[in-house]
Amino acid sequence: MGSLETQINTSQEREQDFLYLRSKLTDMEDRSRRDNIRVLGIPENEEGLDMQAFLTSTLPKMISLVFDPPLEFQRAHRIGPKRSNNSSRPRPIITCLLRHNQTRQILQVARNHSPFRIDQQVIRITTDYSKETNKRRKAFLALRPRLRKLEMKYGLFDPERMWVTKNGVSKDFYNPDKLRLFLDSFQSQPIDSLNIDSEHDIVGGSDRAETPHSGMEKAKTARHDTGASHRGRDMERLTRSYDDRGQILHAVVTHT
Predict the structure, then answer these.
(1) DSSP character for 98?
(2) Facing residues of 153 across strands?
(3) Bridge partners (DSSP) listed for residue 73
(4) Global pTM?
(5) How many CB atoms within 10 Å of residue 209?
(6) Which parts of the sequence are annotated with region: Disordered (predicted)?
(7) How far apart are CA 45 and CA 82, in angstroms?
């Protein structure tokens, strides 16, 4: 029996470690893309033979922004299989700018004034996120019809934080499942009477939250020390649960 319990505990620890490491890997990938932007809608072969020269001359005019020094790119190319010139869905262009402040300027203008137009062609400029982050953002965006139906204001911020408000009450959510639960509960209760913490309240607070590995190791050490120094007394077992960012959601102390 003891061996089975040990195996279960080990499996749970490994699962928590896996979730934490996956979230760290996603975060690292998103950070590595901070100087990237995606340009959507530019017709195939419009750039000619030199993509960087095309963007250097076209982007400032399109977004009505003067850059000093001029735009410089580390890389710029299309992604995906080649398509015909008259394709209704031209391949996205992904670029990596040399200067981070210019990346932020372009994205700020895009948020405020997108979409843009070139010869009646609709052009959009977006942030370049990892596959995992895009997946979570799409899950948030899928809830927009419900938010509009409930007459809630909302906004999706970088990289994956949904802000909702109604009647002067605002909440932040970092997990689409938490937002879905919140909307389900709102069907029968007013927003100011809900007893549901926002995702911001749950994972907020200290920026020095323990990782699943370090937290569990400390819990093991605490149990060992308690048993060694207080034989015959009740042992305390510290149970913690974590979200997929490795943040502590709650901690419960039980006696065995």
Answers:
(1) S
(2) 165
(3) 97
(4) 0.62
(5) 16
(6) 197-233
(7) 10
